[in-house]
Amino acid sequence: MHAQFHVARVWMAVEDWLNPTLRLTTPERALYYHLVRVSHLLGHRTAYISRRRMAAITGLSTATARFYLRVLARKRCIRFLSRGRRGTRVEVYLPDEIARRWARLPRAERLAFAPQSPARDAAGQPRAWQRTDLIYTFEFRTRILRREAGRCFYCLRRLQRNEWTLDHVVPLARGGSDRADNLVACCAVCNWSKGLLTAEDFLHQLVRKKVLPRSHLRSRLRALARLGKRHPDAGPAG
After folding, report:
1. Which domains are seen in the chain, by residue range?
2. What pLDDT digit, counting tens, does each position of 69-128 carry?
3. Which of 82, 83, 204, 207 is the most exposed, having the fewest neighbouring CB atoms within 10 Å of its CB?
4. Per-residue DSSP letters for 193-217?
């Protein structure tokens, strides 16, 4: 009976607070319910989920399903821990934990996910630049990867084929663009972990967590500064 009561409380919190507040879409909701089921309902805080499983749950392509999983991470519903043969390992937060995490965030960051643009505009939260399909082309992505010498821009890990992503140095929610001088190649873990942090703050965080050796911090900050000094009219092809 106690277990049933706990499940009922979680479900009510999701429906009464989480979905209305964070505007979870149908795919996000399906993924979140599944992750709670295979973690907390089994007595664990973490769970593994594979691309194939994500696609089966949402009925979408693996790439689209993975996108929604990243959105859950940016909405502070989950936290990415690692990636391996079993899939992606995530820490799953219950609604009351998510509420506490959001309460600690700066107001500007909370407004990045405000469902109505007037709320963002009234607080001076910049809108995202117009998106471009250029970032999905093989030639463009290869050029960015070559510029980073095949390593993650943030943690300097060697990037494996089909296991890397493009990250916006200035997030779209903070007014960043899809131009080459705002994009870097990085590993999936860094992409997921960075969220709405500035690139400089994220690099310092990696040093504190001993993911990036302190001896490499200065060179990473110089690389970041070089990106910012690119000509503003260089365009997406960079």
Report:
1. 2-97 (1.10.10.10), 133-228 (1.10.30.50)
2. 888 888 889 998 887 788 889 999 999 998 888 888 776 666 555 555 555 455 444 444
3. 82
4. HHTTS-HHHHHHHHHHTTSS-GGGH
